[in-house]
Amino acid sequence: MTDFPWLTTLLLVPVVGAAVVALLPRGFARAREVALGFSLLTLLVAFGTLGSFAGSEGGFQLTETYPWIPQFGVSFALGVDGLGMAMILLGTILVPVCLVAAWEDVPAAGRRQQSYFAWMLLLEAFMVGVFAATDVFLFYVFFEAMLVPVYFLIGQFGGPDRARAAMTFLLYSLAGGLIMLVAVIALYLQGPGGSDGFLLERLTGLQIGGTTEALLFLGFFIAFAIKAPLWPVHTWLPLAASESRPATAVLLVGVLDKVGTFGMLRFCLRLFPEASQWATPVVITLAVISVLYGAVLAVGQTDMLRLIAYTSVSHFGFIILGIFAMTQVSGTGASLYMVNHGFTTAALFLIAGMLIARGGSREIAAYGGWQRVTPVIAGSLLVAGLSGLSLPGLNSFVSEFMVIVGSFQRYPVAAVIAALGVILAAVYILLWYKKVATGPLPEAHPAGAATARDMSMREKVVVAPLIAAFLALGFYPRPVIDLLEPAIQSTLQEVGVSEPVPAAEGSDR
Amino acid sequence: MTFTAPEIDYLALLPLIIVIVGGLVGCTLEGVLHRTRRYGVQLPVAVGTLLAALVALATVSTDRTGTTAAGAVAIDGPALLVQGLVLVLAIVGLLVMSERLGGSQPDAFTQAGMSVPGSADEAEATRLGATTTEVYPLTLFSVAGMLLFPAANDLLVMFIALEVLSLPLYVLCGLARRRRLLSQEASLKYFLLGAFSSAFFLFGVTLLYGYAGSMRLDAIAEAVSTRAGMDGLLVPGVLLLAVGLLFKVSAVPFHAWTPDVYQGAPTPVTGFMAACTKVAAFGAALRVFYVAVEGARLEWQPVVAAVAVLTMVVGAVMAVTQTDVKRILAYSSIAHAGFILVGVLAMDAAGISSTVFYLAAYGFMTIPAFALISLVRSGGTEATHVSQWAGLAQRSPWVAAGFSFLLLAFAGIPLTSGFTGKFAVFSAAVATGGWWLVVVGVLASAVTAYIYVRLIVAMYFGDQPGDTVVVTPSALTTFAVVTGVVVTLGLGVLPAPMLELAQSATQFVR
Question: Contact A95/A120 with Cβ under 8 angstroms?
Fold first, then answer.
């Protein structure tokens, strides 16, 4: 089975699914079931891919390369390392969860419902593509094409201010992408060229040096920083996340924004090692600012979805700190964080969505005492929140700890300041939980609050795998770390940084 | 001194001859056929003529490259490719023009072009059932000019081609059936400014003749490479010539006519004109810049680069302020002209192939875009205000989806031809050191994206129900739109064959 084109299959199944769902006859009442079926099939293929993936090896596996536009030097080249594999798994697990969570978003069967689910499946395909592309041009194509489904998911199905949110999101991302386009073209011209000149392997290890490398690095980094999002180019995220449906927000923040940090690891560090080290002080500073800024703003939010968005800004700060600290531990921690953050954010958004569906408001102030109204939802929110504040035993703890420890080896000051973010995390999560779940019901509570039903079976199906993932990744992260470690190792080798020697090593004290 | 008639390779010029004969036949048919039968005959004759010309181009002319007619006409790779593109786009454009929407005449055109709008003459012509089929020979003559324009190897021939392609267009622009005053204003504006730019072109020709002692492009090229001094004739000559060409591609600051004419002209004509004129004019510009005055590029390239920057910036920024769909596309066509100029300025083989590819991509998205605009109606006339498009997706999902896809292509989103084209011209420019042009280009793209996205927002996310309706088109328009969308997708997903074709045809004969 080693020759089986796993990644292409993984890409094609959701594309076919999207087309089928979009073109189902108008009267067909089971579009959602069909969409879910395709997403589960994709998940199955993803597990098959994992089965053929030899975890211990670094470098790209399951590679497929076909000429695509030889005139431009573009190949249709797919391949995954441990990091890509982990991100694809994250995405393919979250999509069916989101589809179930979005079951009632567009209740009436018809064109609108079909297009909602079709866009989700198309998004899944682009997601696989962006994490599996080993050709810079192909990556760029997926990177940009991804905007279209998200744009329609937000703009057509989002909240009251959806048009502005969709537009802000698209223009921000497009602007970053276009800057990257210039860098992509210039990078090709720095490389060996030819009909496969965009292949990652042809472009790694180019000794570009000097101003050129710095400019190319910036071209890529700005696009990724917008995507991630890093302070100060994060302003689109709270708007986009709060105006989306929770399921869309999960895919947007939980998976797609990872393309930013993924791109930093895969492209910025590997292709421009010298410039990456040159930029490190600034990036680390921005990352630490993000950690604190996101956390402080999260404390002050009155809108639940915006609060989650700002926690993500803070968490992305941690991830970027871990990446640019460039130690084995921090890098592995950062990439593990990418996986964990996906699950945590998914749970937070989806459970918040359940509350909003019952309470009818995104305002935290409209809630109170819900642990008596809907105890299971409130309890799940607490678990998800604890995962968000990195409680030991839950998933985020391992990764956050690794990032801080790893970064401390090289940048102790930054690591210490960033650690304040952990404390702030406890503040914003627990305050939120306190206001929503404890105390009396608010005077002007929504009419349905008193009679709101607790978590339905469908919602339990949504939450259960997420909480299972928290526990599994919290108590036994080893398999995932084993998957990620070789990828980080080979990236750091490419950058050419040596591991910092711990100060205490070799001393007899 | 005796006059020797030059050898003319009629077979190499066969496509041109076919189109001219087709136009003359069309004129004759107008005279001999009864009104009721004209449409049924003119449409197949016109389409058949263009198809025959295309076949002749592909089978006969391709084997007979070289200069002919005493070096006045050059049939070479770029010329053939541009001619082929003009012919294909003209067929698609003609189909859209022929849309009758259930009536007996092409719907977009007035039955009494000469009469004063609202006059008794107009009512009389309508009552008598006057036809609008004169658009077919007019279009064919215009196409003939477009075929000759990029193949002209002599500045005088080039001028004649310019006039032959322009004059029928001036008339066509004034023939709109609805909002006739606007249409006639557009026609007059286009004519006056066009005449003005022709004068500039001729002045440039004169100066270059004074400089080189010949109007043939190869002779001018030779003079540029061998003759020192006399820059006082050469540089103004080139720049004045460029004014004439840049006017036709609507580059800033020679763009003032574009929004008014695009808005006023019958919408199918706008599509035809935007696509085909641009293709032909850029074909001619490539030949002038690459063959005749390539040697003096240090003198004129900075000026044209400045024009390119202005064109991209002004086109993009002005598009943002528009509220009329046709004017938005007009300014977007200006911005696109700027992007194409970036490719032209690369001054190497990649510059030629990327320019031609972009032209193909642009042509195939523009004609269907205008065709779709002509279907959206309110109170009997076209509803071109953005607010009238609100919520269109709910009533006409296919029209909205098609138009949105084309808008994404205009914006240059990957997997559409717009992205491939932009990538082609930008990479050609970066490879030859024009990276600062490219930076301006991507920034302008981001700005134009805003306006396209705003249109999509109106169609999909707006809810206001208006009295806007979408009329159901016949097979002609449907075919043209589907062709355009399929090509736009095809050139985005699998552009390799077209790129290969463009790259194989980058050698100008001199």
Answer: yes
